[in-house]
Amino acid sequence: MRLRFLAVLALLAAPSLWGAAAEAPQRKLKVYISVDMEGTVGTVTGDQLGPSGFEYARYREFMTREALAAIQAAKAAGATEILVSDSHGNGENLLLELFPPDVRVIRSWPRRLSMMAGIDESFDAVLFIGYHASASNLKGVRAHTFSSARLTRVAVNGVEMSEGSWNAAIAGHFGVPVVMVSGDDAAVEEVRRLVGPIEAAVVKQNLGFHSASTLTPEAAYSLIAEKVRAALARRSEFKPFRIQSPVLVEVSFKHYLMAEVAAYMPGIERTGSHSIRFTARDMLEAADIMTFLLTYGPQLEP
Question: Could you count the other beta carbons within 10 Å of the beta carbon of residue 218?
Fold first, then answer.
């Protein structure tokens, strides 16, 4: 009888135990998503990349839906907070009305840390969506580094950098790992070569600066979602990409005059007709100097 009485008590207590489990706080998983456009599905020329392009309206939707695929997959993997950086062109590309109400989006320029604005040590993982290869790469659709009109090379501590590796180093300063990248095959290979064997969604194979063999949009969204889920499931395997301080940055410009004028600034040395270098305390200071070099000009006057 006593055993039967104890069994009844256990059954009565079970629902309250289930309720307590259901009410247990969800473990925080904070995800940062930086979204560019050159590496999105189908993008090959300026026709897709800016407001004057005849395909821009369609392709900003593709860009938005790639970001949404990453967001939905991140939530399915347990993400509790998501910050998205619109990191292309004028920074006003993503269609805000399509985003979930609990997601925040960073827009427009100038802003500190540029494509990584808002990142800090509270994040658990970083995703790169729509990324492209660097100006130093012999391959890649629309390959460039920060400014296709101004720069031909950016290196840190002697290593040539893409936007992906530079941004990964900013995240690494805060101890946050990049866990996934999407883009063309050249962009993905370039990021993984420095950052490590992170998850990757190759949405197109580059055939040249203005040509590619591309997936369809729906196929790209599915692949991105698959790789985001896989990346966050194994996020403990990925390490932050850290740059040793001090940070020596070398920059080569397309026009010699920019190198000449930049070298008027204390701490910046002209190393060639088109090149400069400077030393920063860390990646945050390096990012501030680069933002100044690429942003400051008469267009800032009211």
Answer: 11
Strands 125-131 and 30-35: parallel
Q: Which run of H or of E encompasses 30?
A: strand 30-35
Instruction: Provide the pLDDT confidence category of residue 261 given band limits of 50, 70 and 90.
Output: very high
Q: What are 264's two structure tokens? A: 């008027």
Amino acid at 103: V
Identify whether the C-beta of residue 179 lies closer than 8 Å to the C-beta of residue 233. no
- Going along the chain from its start, the domains and CATH numbers come out as 30-146+163-237 (3.40.50.10780)
Whether the pTM exceeds 0.85: the reply is yes
Determine the Cα angle at 254 with ends 92 and 114, to 5°: 30
Other C-beta atoms closer than 10 Å to the C-beta of 136 total: 19
Cα separation, 131 vs 294, whole angstroms: 19
Q: What is the pLDDT of residues 73-115, one digit of tens each?
A: 999 999 999 999 999 999 999 999 999 999 999 999 999 999 9
Catalytic residues: 144
For residue 301, is pLDDT > 50? yes
